[in-house]
Automatic annotation (TrEMBL):
Protein known as: LacI family transcriptional regulator
Gene3D superfamilies to which the protein is assigned, alphabetical: 3.40.50.2300, lambda repressor-like DNA-binding domains (1.10.260.40)
Top-level lineage group: Bacteria
All residue ranges annotated as the HTH lacI-type domain in the record: 2-56
InterPro entries the record matches: HTH_LacI (IPR000843), LacI/GalR-like_sensor (IPR046335), Lambda_DNA-bd_dom_sf (IPR010982), Peripla_BP_I (IPR028082)
PANTHER family associated with the record: HTH-TYPE TRANSCRIPTIONAL REPRESSOR PURR-RELATED, LACI-RELATED TRANSCRIPTIONAL REPRESSOR
SUPFAM superfamilies according to UniProt: lambda repressor-like DNA-binding domains, Periplasmic binding protein-like I
GO molecular function, one term: DNA-binding transcription factor activity
Keywords: DNA-binding, Repressor, Transcription, Transcription regulation
Length: 342
């Protein structure tokens, strides 16, 4: 049976445009509407009845829910993603409705079904810093359009496939290691927080995946950095081991490690190289400017919105996981490994 995807391919437009064209939406040119209608007729396309019912009730509004983890939800992770969503929404005439900020607390089990349905939105994009997520089980069972930004699990199932748009964290870790090894570094170490998230763990495993020796010594080369004096002691242990390059898997760790290097008179990048995940506003202003692996949060927002439009057009589509590669921004904190003889 032909699908919206088949029509979109022949018409050389997006599935979202096909959906709008078949609904007679005036935002699509008359020429494109006629072209899409002709292809649909030629293929014998039969509209999905469930999708038709949703189409008639559409509000042209999309909900965004920030879920758990940050003290200030309006920091870069959230605001950049929201900018990407808003840009795409503007192009298609959608309103973006903030459904709320929720910090998941231990034992908290909020069911979002009533809140989402009362809002009247056509779908929800969930921007989250935590996993597993609670309160979305009923909405998913109803096949209500939901897109999660980041690889996530919902409570009650570790195997349920979701519509996800995420940075490839494993690939980012691998890219970090490959870059440093191309510069001639073999003595590598990773700075990680004491309680690393699942996606931070992916970066760590990706980092050590490309070299058997590194992989065998992974536990010895990952340093869990806490706050305060204990963190300072951890940095001191790291710097005493003779590593020539460090990978900090979060911005605050990169800054703290750079400061520790300065305090001990270790030059960056002449003595050691420092690579940081992710980019942040002051990274380019440090001494030296930090080389980073940047995740494109605006692109994640754009892709999440585009996936949402596909789901609204066809709620019975199979879940899809979209991965976006991190980008290396070379500044001045990484250099060729120093010679062993100095």
């Amino acid at each position: 049976m032909p699908t919206l995807k088949d029509i979109a391919k022949l018409a050389q437009v997006s599935k979202a445009t096909v959906s709008l064209a078949l609904a007679g939406d005036k935002r699509v040119s008359a020429e494109t509407r006629d072209k899409v209608a002709a292809i649909a007729k030629q293929l014998g396309y039969i509209p999905n009845r469930m999708a038709q019912g949703l189409s008639r009730a559409r509000s042209q509004s999309l909900g965004v829910l920030f879920y758990g983890g940050l003290t200030n939800p309006l920091e870069d992770f959230f605001s950049d993603t929201l900018m990407g969503i808003g840009h795409e929404a503007l192009q298609l005439g959608y309103n973006v409705v903030l459904l709320g900020f929720s910090r998941q607390m231990d034992g908290e089990r909020t069911d979002w079904t009533d809140h989402v349905m009362r809002s009247g939105v056509d779908g929800v994009i969930v921007i989250s810093m935590t996993s597993p997520l609670y309160g979305f089980e009923k909405l998913l069972a109803m096949r209500f359009p939901i897109v999660f930004i980041g690889k996530r699990q919902v409570s009650g199932s570790s195997t349920l496939k979701l519509n996800e748009v995420s940075t490839d964290h494993y690939g980012a870790g691998r890219a970090a290691s490959d870059y440093l090894r191309r510069l001639g570094h073999s003595e590598l170490a990773v700075a990680a927080p004491e309680s690393a998230s699942a996606w931070m763990e992916e970066r760590i495993h990706g980092f050590f995946s490309g070299d058997r020796k590194l992989l065998a010594e992974m536990n010895e080369r990952v340093y869990d950095v806490s706050e305060g004096k204990e963190g300072e002691a951890t940095f001191s242990r790291m710097l005493a081991q003779g590593y020539t390059a460090f990978f900090a898997i979060a911005p605050h760790l990169g800054l703290s490690l750079l400061q520790a290097l300065h305090r001990q008179g270790i030059r960056v990048p002449e003595d050691v190289s420092l690579l940081v995940y992710d980019d942040f506003p002051s990274a380019a202003l440090q001494r030296p400017p930090l080389t980073v692996l940047k995740q494109d949060m605006r692109a994640l927002g754009r892709l999440a919105f585009q996936r949402m439009i596909e789901l609204i057009a066809d709620p019975e589509e199979e879940p899809k996981q979209i991965l976006l590669s991190a980008t290396l921004l070379e500044r001045e904190s990484c250099a060729v490994a120093p010679r062993a003889d100095g």
